[in-house]
Specification:
Length: about 325
């Protein structure tokens, strides 16, 4: 079976369950977005949410996908940067516990913390302090870290550092890897459109986008956006919420429905969909089947709080597969 390497922001999620959306307005955070915040704003979020029900979990988009793949038995590793602190240790131990090889740099800067605010309708909004995570640089990359892996999965959030993302993609291609990219967030796409378009056209084999991200990237509605993305890559996937997802390679489109479930928290839905699809891909399954596995994983993660799937659900998932 092919091996998958993930690279992304090594973050720990602080999941805060909102009673209403007033706090989002107070903090100036657009609902459903991922906003980068400084240490002071992160502390303000923590202070204002201290009385809310919350839980901690290792996170970061690419890391969530790698966790999903590891739970399905795929050999994986993860590259990122954490601080020499309690949050960093939490992240490292969580990788090891899932059987993921940690290829992490350690920093004196505090570890990154993603303050996730979950609205009553399940929508999540992030005020993310990147901390040590953003210190990952192109100079930290070593070709030998890439050479034993077949597929690289990278999160679009890294586009904030153009040199880093281009360095990652170049190194992966030099090692003969296929590259999978999740566009990550519509506002990140909008802010880096020209550069991101160049990277996708030049390096990316598999691209994941939800409806908003696809529109930000192409200026088009889902059907047309899928075609545009497929012209630039080997495989394009556009997710359209409750309508499911569309997968296109060459001129063939697979339409995949959703798994019915109660939506509690959408955190990690796209990340786990990517894990399911990539699991199918490395096992040479048809795209429709891979998309169905992605939809199954997404349905399980949104039925509970956080970006992780519980042990009982993993057993059911493996039986279904």
């Amino acid at each position: 079976m092919k091996k998958v390497l993930g690279i992304g922001n090594a973050l720990v999620d602080a999941l805060n369950k909102l009673e209403n959306d007033d706090l989002l307005n107070e903090l100036g955070l657009p609902k459903g977005s991922m906003q980068l915040v400084d240490a002071q704003t992160s502390k303000a979020i923590q202070e204002k949410s201290k009385n809310l029900e919350k839980e901690m979990a290792s996170g970061g988009s690419a890391a969530n996908t790698i966790h999903g793949l590891a739970n399905l038995g795929v050999e994986t590793a993860f590259i990122g940067t954490v601080g020499k602190d309690e949050i960093g240790n939490f992240f490292i131990e969580d990788l090891k516990k899932s059987g993921i090889k940690p290829l992490l740099n350690l920093s004196e800067t505090p570890s990154g913390l993603a303050n996730a605010m979950i609205s009553p309708d399940g929508e999540r909004t992030f005020g993310t302090y990147l901390g040590a995570a953003i210190e990952l640089s192109a100079s930290d990359l070593k070709p030998e870290q890439f050479k034993d892996y077949d597929i690289l999965h990278v999160e679009g959030y890294l586009v904030q550092n153009h040199d880093l993302l281009e360095g990652i993609l170049k190194t992966a291609k030099e090692q003969g890897m296929e590259i999978s990219l999740d566009l990550a967030s519509y506002n990140v796409v909008e802010d880096n459109l020209d550069f991101l378009t160049k990277m996708v056209n030049q390096y990316v084999d598999i691209v994941f986008a939800n409806e908003e991200e696809a529109k930000a990237f192409t200026g088009q509605e889902p059907d047309d956006a899928l075609n545009t993305l497929a012209e630039a890559t080997k495989i394009a996937i556009v997710k359209v919420g409750s309508k499911g997802s569309m997968i296109k390679e060459n001129n063939k489109i697979a339409n995949v429905g959703v798994e019915k479930t109660k939506v509690v928290d959408t955190t990690g839905a796209g990340d786990l969909y990517a894990a399911g699809f990539l699991y199918g891909y490395v096992n040479n399954l048809p795209h429709e089947k891979s998309g169905q596995i992605g939809a199954l994983l997404a349905s399980k993660v949104i039925a509970d709080y956080g970006a992780k799937i519980g042990e009982t659900d993993w057993k059911e998932i493996k039986n279904r597969i």
